[in-house]
């Protein structure tokens, strides 16, 4: 019986020794990126890693985690970079930013957007698939009042179904308030989709079957690049109206477009002091949203690994990333492509 | 491809599965949707029926049922009080939605599980074939089959019932089979000798003797069905799970605990009543 603990102990020792050996082999510890699960985050992560590895020769790797756990890890410098950070949206991030533990660099995707969408065939029809235009005059959220029957909810057939984001997301509160503000809450069922995967699956399935569907979504995402979707017009953004939308308990909300999203690169405080060269690059990163959506669509359609998609993006959009880098680093990345 | 294993021997069938699911959605999606609409009607009408009843009537009915089942007034009062507590937490409507979901799924579980258990107990070949399937049902991560099911049957209650069924059915089948297999064969032979036919032997001898085991299986099914409520809410089925999920996602631990305890309370109510009905010699 005594033999097993001894065996285990020696095994542990061996593993320990082996790991210190390999750590000694790399003179520089790799830069840890958060392994973001959603497509745009995964692609941005790989684009940045390729630039850091080839342009500057720093080793990198990725560690998986949920959004909140990655933000907490960044604050403790267990991670050094989160390539797509919707800064200022989560309490964990705000706390760490106030404590000076994390920094949001740059404005990586301009015109990142969220809103209410319908597939274009609902408005224009699609002769190739024999789909009639079910809601030919649908332009803005106000027009939805005329078409609840188009988006019929099978659970409550007298109403339409608005596919909201999962409960617990900030956008869920905003959308619920918007339904009230636009006078649609009596005509449409506020259907929370439960999880991001469920929302994707339902929208994807409806579009493939050519069925009408009204849903909340955001960009940059593969869905935006992959299908012809129409965003319903809303009144322009207005700060006071926005405050009534984000407050779930506000009795009389006013509708307006959502606050434009700001996507940044999140870095830890030690990273910021240790790699000033990379910080300058990260601050300049600017991914054009149309090309990003197209790359994401191709990546999800062909189920391409994010690293290959990032390589293809760098190859096809040289002008885009060369603007961020000093000539010398740009030449090194160019050579590696 | 991953290192450490010879590359020529590696393969992936992910593409086939993807194509298969796409093909199903494209060609049979609409038919399956209309099928699922029928099941949905059943669920929604049960839910609406429950909603029509005033709260005090539901509590009284549960109390009466518990009293009738167990004969104990204290137990009846405690169980109604548990439900009333959920109402006081402001979760009454969600409770009814969850109750409808759990009732339909456990009902289906009994309809499928008990006969399947009987078949397994009498047919060794079926037993050998079905037991591995039950293992798969219990261990395959729910999201693996949920997302395709959702694409085919639509978001919401129907895939939720499906997922609950997949997860909660195995214990009932296994314990029904076990209960029947453990009956002393001489009893059945004696009944045979007295001229009882197959059905009579099953109905009068085997099932009553196996009842404690079957009821233990039902208990497990109910518990597992309720534990699936949170997963069900991740695919758009409303109810108590929705609050648990929202509580977790917004770090609102208190809200999560309230809804979580409501699920526990509901589980206890359903279990105590059904177990009291299943007790032998009642």
Care to describe what's here?
The complex is a heterodimer of chains A (337) and B (282). With 337 residues, chain A is α+β, with helices and mostly antiparallel strands. Chain A folds into two domains: 29-110 and 261-336, 3-Layer(aba) Sandwich (D-Maltodextrin-Binding Protein, domain 2); 113-246, D-Maltodextrin-Binding Protein, domain 2 (3-Layer(aba) Sandwich), CATH 3.40.190. Chain A is 46% helix and 16% strand. Chain A is built from 15 helices and eleven strands. In chain A, the strands form four sheets. In chain A, strands 3-11-4 form a three-stranded antiparallel β-sheet. In chain A, β7 (156-164), α6 (170-181) and β8 form a beta-alpha-beta unit. In chain A, α2 (39-56) packs across α13, α2 crosses α15 and α6 crosses α9 (239-246). Chain A starts with a helix and ends with a helix. Mean pLDDT of chain A is 87; it is low at 15-26. Chain B has one domain (15-278): MetI-like fold (Orthogonal Bundle). Chain B is built from twelve helices and no strands. Chain B has helices at residues 14-52, 55-70, 73-88, 92-122, 124-139, 142-153, 157-181, 185-193, 198-227, 229-233, 240-249, 253-278.
Topology:
The complex is a heterodimer of chains A (337) and B (282).
Chain A lengths: L2 H23 L5 E5 L3 H18 L3 E5 L2 H9 L5 E5 L5 H8 L3 E4 L7 E7 H5 L27 E2 L2 E9 L5 H12 L6 E5 L3 H14 L5 E5 L2 H5 L2 E3 L7 H8 L17 E5 H6 L1 H9 L4 H13 L4 H11 L1 H5 L4 H10 L1
Parallel strand pairs in A: 1-2, 7-8
Antiparallel strand pairs in A: 3-11, 4-11, 5-9, 5-10, 6-7
Helix pairs in contact in A: 2-13, 2-15, 3-4, 6-9
Chain B lengths: L13 H39 L2 H16 L2 H16 L3 H31 L1 H16 L2 H12 L3 H25 L3 H9 L4 H30 L1 H5 L6 H10 L3 H26 L4
List its traits.
heterodimer; A: 337 residues; alpha+beta; D-Maltodextrin-Binding Protein, domain 2; three-stranded antiparallel beta sheet; 11 strands; 16% strand; B: 282 residues; mainly alpha; MetI-like fold; 12 helices
As residue ranges, the low-confidence spans of chain A are: 15-26
Distinct helical segment count of chain A:
15
CATH domain class name of the largest domain in chain A: Alpha Beta
Strand content of chain A: 15-25%
Counting DSSP E segments of at least 2 residues, the number of strands of chain A comes to: 11
Number of strands of chain B: 0
CATH class categorisation of chain B: Mainly Alpha
Which protein chains make the most extensive interface, counting residues with beta carbons within 8 Å of the other chain's beta carbons? Answer: A-B, 25 and 36 residues
User: Considering DSSP H and I runs of 4 or more, what fraction of the residues of chain A is helical?
Assistant: 40-55%
Specify the helix fraction band of chain B: over 70%
CATH architecture of the largest domain in chain A: 3-Layer(aba) Sandwich
Number of self-contained structural domains of chain B: 1
Number of domains of chain A: 2
